[in-house]
Design goal:
This protein is about 15% helix and about 25% strand. It has about 260 residues and is of the alpha/beta class. The chain has one domain (about 5, about 10-245).
Length: about 260
């Protein structure tokens, strides 16, 4: 099975015997938390729903890699209002809708309409691909697949111009596993793909800070070689490896001319 990014979207198309759209970190209800803090922004749920509905034609299913909702613990009125409607509309156009549980997904089942399949936080498998949110250890079966796809970290890249103005862009990260036997897993995937957050109100966590703090047990050990991880913008521009892009917070960062555009290889 192939994992192909959709240009200018934080979405993957998984192509094999069937075709699936894969996304992560919707964080429906984030705007409620922002409103409580005094920041008023419109809900992103309708925009995310519209984008997913537009991609349904010709696809067999939709997979969401956790953090469907935002508030934890508990749930907000916004989540109880928007989550059921969101999934009812998606079930009308996708043959199957699956959710891999994330750390924000408390009480999620009571909001979901019949027909949505919820997988445990340990993940699910689709042909030779393992899919997991990323906040806990994947199952042995998930880690035995050729490729692992995770969400949770909201990967982004930070740019700084000559006026010390910072901008952050969501990005894709593809990192190789260090191939050695571990006590926990007899086999490891060849590569992990980190999925950017679908909710554009989440600016993301820059992976190019010196010693970036990646969340989740897979990144806290030595299983993944982040120095060799490749970074791509959503439009397909290849920026280089995390090891070459890492910068200190106060060091000026000038990016080189892109080596690749619109390629995923």
């Amino acid at each position: 099975m192939q994992a192909i990014p959709i240009v200018d979207k934080p979405m993957l198309e998984l192509l094999g015997e069937k075709s699936y759209i894969c996304v992560g970190d919707l964080h429906i209800g984030l705007e409620h938390e922002m409103k409580v803090g005094g920041v008023h922004v419109p809900s992103q749920t309708h925009r995310m729903e519209s984008e997913l509905l537009a991609l349904a034609k010709g696809r067999d299913g939709l997979i969401i890699l956790g953090d469907v909702k935002h508030m934890v613990p508990g749930s907000s009125r916004q989540e109880y209002r928007e989550v059921p409607r969101f999934f009812r509309n998606l079930l009308d156009v996708y043959g199957s809708v699956s959710v891999v549980r994330g750390n924000h997904d408390t009480n999620l089942e009571e909001m979901l309409p019949d027909g949505v399949v919820v997988h445990p936080a340990s993940g699910m498998c689709l042909e030779d691909i393992g899919l997991v949110h990323g906040h806990t250890w994947p199952s042995e079966e998930v880690m035995a697949q050729r490729l692992l796809i995770v969400a949770h970290n909201h990967p982004a890249i930070m740019f700084e111009d000559g006026l010390n103005t910072n901008t952050t862009e969501r990005c894709w990260v593809r990192a190789p596993f260090r191939q050695f036997r571990t006590d926990r897993y007899p086999r490891l995937p060849e590569e992990v793909i980190m999925v950017p957050s679908m909710n554009m109100s989440l600016k993301g966590s820059p992976v190019n800070f010196e010693e970036p703090r990646m969340l989740g047990p897979l990144f806290s050990g030595d299983l993944i070689d982040m120095d060799a991880a490749k970074v791509y913008l959503l439009d397909g521009v290849y920026l280089g490896t995390v090891g070459n892009l890492r910068v200190k917070r106060r060091r000026r960062f000038k990016i080189r001319e892109p080596e690749l555009r619109g390629k995923w290889e």
